[in-house]
Amino acid sequence: MRNNRIGFKLGVVIMSVFLIVLLSLGLAIDRMFTNFYSSEMRTETEELTSHFAVMAESPDTTTEQMMSTFAEFSDVSIFNVSRDGSVKLHSGLHDSADHSFLQASSLKDIFAGKEMSFVYKDPTGHRYFVTGKPIYEGKSVGSALYVMSSTTNMEQSLSAVRNILLLSGFGAFILALGITWIISQILSRPLVQMQKATRNIAAGELETRLTIRSKDEIGFLADAINDLAVDLQRYRDTRQEFFANISHELRTPITYLEGYAKVVKDGLYETEEEKNLYLDIIYQEAHRIQHLVDDLFDLAKMEEGKISLSLDWIDFAQMTDQAVRKVELKAREKNIKLKVHHRGTAEMIRGDGKRMEQIVMNLLENAIRYTDVGEINVQVNFETESAVFIVEDSGIGIPAEELSFIFERFYRVEKSRSRAYGGTGLGLSIVKMLVELHSGTIAITSKVGVGTRCEVRFPDIQRK
Ligand code: ADP
Fold it and tell me: Where does the record say this protein resides (predicted)?
């Protein structure tokens, strides 16, 4: 019962309502039968009294004998009472000595020509239905005729009806109790299951799933709990993967740093040139760690939704030109040509300058990083509704089956290949989030061995 309180409460409520309905229905039926039997008896006794009155008024001398026989046959008692209260004729089972039902006032009324009916209880507790009627002798009332009909038969019938009512009420109660128990079980069982499941999920058993399939609020709640468990599981898995990736990404440059720093510290080099080469590696690896930490910091802030754009009017064309200039040196070192084209009328647009530059720089650096020969074409287009930035390289390209994953954190095409190029695997996921923060879109198309095309579109831009 401890785990099934809702069922219990529901059962108590249903049974209370049921009992109230059952009791009022029982009382109503009992009243109905009582009224029915009483009115039947009243009509019957009154009819009998009329018959007796007609007989009594007849001048025939055998009347008394007939009345007695008829009274016996009809199972009633009759009293023919004279004006002074003395009984002229008595017949039937009721004790002839018991005259307490004869009230002076009622007798007076009957002799005044009135008729009456009432219920009388004799000294032994028996109840009778009594009807009084005047017997005329000529034009005046000669005597009063009382007919007493015992209510015993009626009470026996009523008690039989009551027994049937009680029995069927009890049967209905037991049936309702059973049905209520089943309903409360049906309703409370899934709730108990959900309570257990959520406790298990809270305890870290994220594989827990509910199998409640009902298409109602309970089923929807179970679905929501399942979705929550799936989300938590995914979150836990990606978090584990995320930390594994970070450790891996940090471990490699740190090993380099440790190794080469030790070589330099212990003087394990032969020429000054060799020493500079090692210091160069140390510098590059420290730079890589710096880059990784910056990226991680950005990513964490974005995922928590804590990054907010500081919007300003940006000269987008000038900003992209500056970014191209910054990476030009790297491109020249690799003998790659960098070409920039502008289309449309350059305008000031609303955005976060630092973040927009981060997007542009990231895409330009990727293009240079993954291109060994050829050229990189950069386009800045001002269209009617949007500002578009396109970088097209003639690099190694991305296999079609991997294209859909490149925006995932730490995702790299051919892990070893990317490491040789020096990326962190975080760049594009940050770019995508920043583009979306500007309500923009990013699309990448690529062909292995031919090159990659990245297109960033900032739609609905505000212009000065
Ligand atoms: P990374 O820091 O490793 O470059 P990104 O998130 O920027 O990480 O990119 C994800 C992966 O997509 C890279 O590891 C690389 O394999 C691939 N990639 C990105 N840009 C290009 C490009 N211009 N040409 C070829 N491959 C690319």
Answer: Cell membrane; Membrane raft
* 398 touches ligand 1 (CB under 6 Å): yes
- Which residue pairs from 439-445 have beta carbons closer than 8 angstroms and sit at least 24 positions apart in sequence? 442/407, 444/398, 444/403, 444/406, 445/403
Instruction: Report CA dihedral (244, 247, 249, 251) to the nearest 10 degrees.
Output: -140
Residue 20's identity, in one-letter code, is I
Question: Which secondary structure element, helix H or strand E, spans residue 328, and what is its range?
Answer: helix 316-333
Query: Domain 5-156 belongs to what topology?
Result: Beta-Lactamase (3.30.450)
Tokens of 212: 């409640």
Q: Which of 246, 293, 396, 413 to mutate to test the pocket of ligand 1 (most atoms within 8 A of CB)?
A: 413
* Coil, strand or helix at 90: strand
CATH second-level architecture of 217-303? Orthogonal Bundle (1.10)
For the CA of 424, the closest atom of ligand 1 is 2
**DSSP states of 361-427 as a string?**
HHHHHHHHHT--SSEEEEEEEE-SSEEEEEEE--SS---GGGGGGTTSTT--STHHHHHHHT--S-H
Q: How far apart are CA 141 and CA 130, in angstroms?
A: 19
Spatial separation of the C-alpha atoms in residues 122 and 93, rounded to whole Å: 13
User: Can you give the pLDDT at residue 446?
Assistant: 96
Ligand 1 centroid–CA 449 distance in Å is: 14
Q: What is the average pLDDT value for the chain, to the nearest integer?
A: 88
Domain residue spans in the chain?
5-156, 217-303, 312-459
pLDDT value for 301: 85
In angstroms, rounded to a whole number, what is the distance separating the alpha carbons of residues 90 and 62? 15
Query: Please, which residues bridge with residue 149 across strands?
Result: 76, 129
Superfamily of domain covering 312-459: Histidine kinase-like ATPase, C-terminal domain (3.30.565.10)
The residue whose CA has the least distance to atom 23 of ligand 1 is: 367
